[in-house]
Amino acid sequence: MSEHDELAAQRRKNLRLIHFSKEDQSLVESEKPKETFADVGGLEEVKKKIRMNFILPLKQPEVYAAYGKQAGGSLLLYGPPGCGKTFLARAVAGEIDANFFHVELQSILSMYSGQSEHNLHDIFEKARENKPCVIFIDEIDALGGSRHQMRQHHDRMLVNQLLLELDGLQAENDNVFVIGATNTPWYLDSALRRPGRFNHLVFVPPPEEAERQTILELKLSGKPLGSLNLPRIAAETKFYSGADLEQLVHDAVESAMERTFEKGEIQPITQDDLKRSTKGRKATTLDWFATAKNYATFSDVNGDYQIVLDYIKKHGVKS
Ligand SMILES: Nc1ncnc2c1ncn2[C@@H]1O[C@H](COP(=O)(O)OP(=O)(O)OP(=O)(O)O)[C@@H](O)[C@H]1O
């Protein structure tokens, strides 16, 4: 079984499906993730922001109370695919030993009037009953927003419901955290970007060179290794996402396993295995930056994405 399959099997074991009611088949997957920040390579700035706003308030509420601040709140992660938004959200839950509700918008959308809002409300209710809880809403841009030229009435209602739920959390100090994620923040409904809604909009960039080395070390740990020059691989994988690096290690593992089967004894992963799996592999984040550059330059996002333009300039992104 590959590492990926093992992880998937482990996750399935941890999964608890919550049925809301007999009539309503809407489900949300709830689990207690094992990942913590130690498993997330790099992203130190992002982790720091999350620690200050999500984790410390729960661990040291008295400090926050003294300053009139409370635990809970919401965070919106955006950036290129595969850079760890979902992984980070799971790690937040792991850090605070919270339940993790992974909300797929498709599963709450209903053709019946009012039912989608009802489903969303139920998820927040369940989260309160299972606190501390992290509600992770993936592809949150699909909720209303400008993706659909002809915005549906019920999209609007669902956005309004989410706004209500977020406002409710702000008022109640419930130890329920909402993390939204999107690869296409420019499609996001503008109401969700207003202050007091998703209070933190955080760019999750591709890992830097030293971070790529850390991710490679994390993904290779515990495996039979030859003499490796990981700084070299890290230097040659500019703009690779965490998922790209994971795939690279996966391919190198396959090569070493093939040799093992041929030779009949465990063969270590070599520098050549890693090097070979970088050949012809383009960083998947580059296409994202090309699109992001257009939107960040021309859309009416009030400089929200200046950080992306700065990143493109600083790192010389050429897609
Ligand atoms: N910083 C990181 N450290 C360790 N592993 C990472 C990191 N970033 C990504 N990965 C690996 O890549 C996989 C994919 O990452 P993840 O699903 O979190 O990306 P994402 O940003 O949510 O992508 P998408 O936008 O496509 O949903 C993770 O399961 C994890 O194994």
From TrEMBL:
Family listed: Belongs to the AAA ATPase family.
UniProt name for this protein: AAA ATPase central domain protein
Segments forming domain AAA+ ATPase: 71-208
Domain of life: Bacteria
Record's keyword terms, sorted: ATP-binding, Coiled coil, Nucleotide-binding
Any one Gene Ontology molecular-function term assigned to this protein's record: ATP binding
A Pfam family of this chain: AAA
